[in-house]
Design a protein that fits this description.
This protein is an alpha+beta fold. It folds into three domains: 81 residues, Uridine Diphospho-n-acetylenolpyruvylglucosamine Reductase, domain 2; 122 residues, Uridine Diphospho-n-acetylenolpyruvylglucosamine Reductase, domain 3 (2-Layer Sandwich); 83 residues, UDP-N-acetylenolpyruvoylglucosamine reductase, C-terminal domain (Uridine Diphospho-n-acetylenolpyruvylglucosamine Reductase, domain 1). The chain is 27% helix and 27% strand. The strands form six sheets. It has a five-stranded antiparallel sheet with strand order 6-7-13-11-12. The chain has a four-stranded mixed sheet with strand order 1-2-5-3. The protein has a four-stranded antiparallel sheet with strand order 15-18-17-16. The two termini are 22 Å apart.
Length: 306
């Protein structure tokens, strides 16, 4: 991967960006699958992130921004470009009933910080293995709560125009498991969440109940990428349709449709991206043949898939 001189000079400043080459994406994704990325770049803060994104946007080098690596299937062949990590954009601050969070803050850490401040609203999202950036991009939700309902304002970067801007929720096209952030490949830098003052013990109780519900209904003992498919347009659960066809426990190599939740494909230890995608496509075809419903992927693909 050839880099222009200005970008190379910036990457040489290790105080600003940590650079790793040929790092397996399996170490960066919750599914624990994926070949090597040419470059993995970790800027130290929001300012370094914006400078790095500017240089990459001006170059011809492909890049993708990655948070916690959930809801993602990385190719066995890796990624011929740069992966930009948000994980060091991890600052949290509280002001009144708002929580300012960097894009790399995990949902669970944000929920814990809110609890400590006596602020409720994030309890239903506790335990989702994602970051604020990814959660807002896909409008993550659980148990009747979507994160977009908590957003006050977001600070974003547009790689196409190289513009940094602040947007309110009604400017970001939030819908079920999507947003303008995702559709236009905008990069979230930070967000301010509007929460509700609440008793700390009540918040903690709600968080415990959320975790208990996740443990009962989801295969937390195995690596996964979360739900493979979105719910059907008519509101039916993709997992229930797949389960009704007797596909729980079905395998391709070490990829298996979870016996606990049929909308999860788990990695039993040595699954490949090809195994996962092949199994997902088999389930998708079976649902279409049986019900005439073409399931839409919630899972995102990274890299080349033949």
């Amino acid at each position: 991967m050839r880099l222009d001189a200005e970008l190379l000079s910036y990457l040489a400043d290790t105080r600003q960006v940590t650079v790793r080459r040929d790092l397996p994406l399996s170490t960066l994704t919750t599914l624990r699958i994926g070949g090597a990325a040419d470059l993995v770049l970790s800027p130290c803060d929001g300012g370094a992130m914006l400078r790095l994104l500017d240089l990459l946007s001006l170059s011809d080098h492909p890049f993708r921004v990655l948070g916690a690596g959930s809801n993602l299937l990385a190719s066995d062949g890796g990624y011929a470009g740069a992966i930009v990590l948000t994980r060091r954009l991890d600052r949290i601050s509280v002001s009144g009933s708002t929580l300012r969070v960097g894009a790399g803050v995990s949902l669970s850490r944000a929920a814990n910080a809110a609890r400590e401040a006596g602020l409720g609203g994030l309890e239903a999202l506790y335990g989702i293995p994602g970051s604020i950036g990814g959660a807002l991009a896909m409008n993550a939700g659980a148990f009747g709560c979507e994160i977009s309902s908590l957003l006050s304002v977001a600070t974003l970067y547009d790689p196409e125009t190289r513009r940094v801007f602040v947007a309110a929720p009604d400017e970001l096209g939030f819908a079920y498991r999507t947003s303008e952030i995702l559709a236009s490949r905008l990069v979230l830098i930070s967000a301010i969440l509007r929460l509700t003052p609440r008793d700390r013990e009540e918040i903690a109780c709600r968080m415990r109940k959320t975790l208990e519900m996740r443990e009962r209904s989801q295969p937390l003992g195995y690596p996964s990428a979360g739900c493979v498919f979105k719910k059907c347009p008519d509101g039916r659960s993709a997992g229930e349709l797949i389960e009704a066809l007797g596909m729980k426990g079905k395998r391709r190599g070490d990829a298996m449709i979870s016996e606990r939740h049929a909308n999860f494909i788990v990695n039993l230890g040595g699954a490949s991206a090809t195994d996962v995608l092949s199994l997902a496509e088999e389930a998708r075809r079976a649902v279409y043949d049986a019900y005439g419903v073409l399931l839409e992927y919630e899972l995102e693909l990274l890299g080349d898939f033949l």
